[in-house]
Write a structure and sequence with these properties.
Layout: E1 2-6, E2 16-17, E3 24-25, E4 30-33, E5 41-42, E6 47-52, E7 56-61, H1 78-85, H2 97-100, E8 109-114, H3 123-146, E9 150-155, H4 160-169, E10 176-180, H5 190-198, E11 213-217, H6 218-230, E12 236-243, E13 252-258, H7 263-269, E14 280-282, E15 289-291, E16 303-306, E17 317-321, H8 328-337, E18 342-347, E19 351-354, E20 357-360, H9 370-378, E21 383-386, H10 396-402, E22 407-409, H11 412-415
Parallel strand pairs: 8-9, 8-11, 9-10, 12-16, 17-18, 17-21, 21-22
Antiparallel strand pairs: 1-7, 2-4, 3-6, 4-5, 6-7, 12-13, 14-15, 14-16, 19-20
Length: 427
Amino acid sequence: MLRKIMLNDHIGGPAISEVKIGDTVKKGQLIAKPSGLGSNVHASFQGVITEITDLSITIDADNEQPEEFIKLENKENKLEMIQDAGIIGAGGAGFPTHVKLNTKLKDGCIIVNAAECEPILSHNIKLLNESGDKIIKGLKEVMALTNAKKGIIAIKPKHKKTLIHLGKMIKEMDDIELFYLPNIYPAGDERVIIREVLDIELEPGQLPLVANAIVTNVETVKNIYNCIYEQKPVITKDLTVGGRVNGCSDGKAILDVPIGTTMIELIEDNGGYQKNHGEIVIGGPFTGRRGSESSVVGKTTGGCLVAMPFPQETRKIGLLECECGAQKERLSEIAEAMGAEVIASERCKRMTEVNGRYRCDLPGECPGQTETVINLKKQGAEVIIAGACEDWTNTATKVAPRLGVPIYHSTDHVLRATNHKLYRRMK
């Protein structure tokens, strides 16, 4: 079977191939290196190279795949090992971890992001339940690398079983503690975590280093453990399959899926489609992107969610963009799939431009949307599709119906495919 390994999974430019067509590669073999900011890429399957492009390397994988992999060189310099392993932010950011950890924190802290922020996704919690010891050891390694004084695992209190499990493991540790995050989206945003854990409000565009802290995802810490203790490069990914898949409606967490696995394999291997299904969303309901059956698992893939079919809409649509959720491109894509005409678009008032991109000036706390909804209605919008974070329901949901404008959320078709409530919370 042909397996495509992406070369642009990370922040920075695509990695450059180290192999050529016709080469036989082994599992774990280095096949591409970055030319600047980026990460190493390794073969997650044994087989023969059949195609090389600027963005991917295709392997004709052997029918029988070995369990063993080519191990990394065991070095005293752990930061070099992390770089060799091709570790990036597995939570979706994709920033090269060896660059992120190349600093010293005087009396600072490492915060492990265990928010599992997006609804339906559950693989981070499964990882903590099954391999919490690896996360603790990986966290200790990161603390030692950065001279951090304290390690904090930030998690939502609804995960009681996981909290008890972790609490027992760190009971005798003075330098590692648990912190309870609010049970909202986007509790896993770096700036929300810094605000909640350290009571420091970062400005849009500021990094946690300003607060003398580093925030890293649970799975990234697992990859650091694998790198240092097992000399394993990043060749697998944890993710959640859910939605209109038989037996996976509520979300099924799967650990160590080989990178390059296709979405259709994940769907078929976990029960196959349920009837009346819609698009495949790669990632979570809020920030995921549209995929296809041939889309492949990469280093930042968090979910394979099969949605309900889109309702068809003949009325004119206005878009309400959000930096924390769906923005104009994704909202327009949804509107097109609904068969609707987009005639207006407005940004949430919290969106502010910083260095050429929009950021939320106070993530997780939505402002009033009356003015925004009125502007959309004035431009002819008869219906609104919003991509805002969870708190938007206390503003847009109240205002729009009173003004005679029905409202959809960008997550509706995904959440309807599961047993998850729609975001329509009102106070």
